[in-house]
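ZP: hey, is the iron/sulfur cluster complex queued? I don't see it on the tracker
AM: it wasn't, my bad. submitting now with these inputs:
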Amino acid sequence: MILAVASGKGGTGKTTVSVNLARSTGSAVQLLDCDVEEPNAHLFLCGLKTGSEIVTIPIPEVDESLCDACGECGRFCRYHAIVSFGASPLVFPEMCHGCGGCTLVCPRGAIREIGRRVGVVETQEVDGITLIQGRIDIGVAMAPPLIRAVKSRMNSKGATVILDAPPGTSCPVIATLRGSDYVLLVTEPTPFGLHDLRLAVDMVRELTIPFGVVVNRMGVGDDRVHQFCREQEIPILLEIPDDRRIAEAYSRGELVVDALPEYRSHFATLLWNIRDSRRSQS
Ligand code: SF4
Ligand code: SF4
């Protein structure tokens, strides 16, 4: 099962849910930290680093001796990453998505592709959890290619894979969620939490992936998130109380299920509820 953990905004406890779920599966599990701009699952799962690979995307390089300045490449590129003003084109590597289209449409074979580094994918082994995380390079704006590189290391055959998505509802989140069997949306029972949950619900419905909600910090705010979920028939699979001891464990970089063993059953129940919810939604 590929389970993505997402939230409409940052700071809702998405990583807390991801790492504690990974610890609670009771069998071999892969945890993919797809929040490549700010990976933080490793702060809670310090283990043996087993790999680090550089990720590149192919960007065009123009051979001026072959180019006749026809401008086909610039007309093709929807990202304006290659432009020609009646001369050999200029390439803007930071805007290039590495789609390879300009190379294909060039009638003179004047474009070849070279690799541009966008980040690294690192692997760690931690007590039965394989943590795979992407770390985007400073100055690189496009996270999806790196997220796809992280996901290409996924081995979901018979195993549980947990994807810790970036916050929000933009392209990096969609790149993470695509292909998942189930999405957990983590939110807080506050007006801001509800606002961002609505956006996240629209997104997963658009992607047609079954989903449920985890309400974190129960006890703060009001009941509008619950009301919304009731009206929309969205299952609330777990409520995590606003427990000061959880915040303290978090600040020490400890897993909730290790620091407060009474919470183990909560996360085990969450996994059970996900499986049950999948059955009833399929
Ligand atoms: S590889 Fe794609 S995105 Fe990059 S310059 Fe060529 S057409 Fe544009
Ligand atoms: S399509 Fe090829 S030949 Fe035409 S401007 Fe671009 S690089 Fe030059």
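AM: back. The pocket of iron/sulfur cluster (ligand 2) is lined by residues 62, 67-73, 84, 89, 106, 108, 110-111 (CB under 6 Å).
ZP: great, adding it to the tracker
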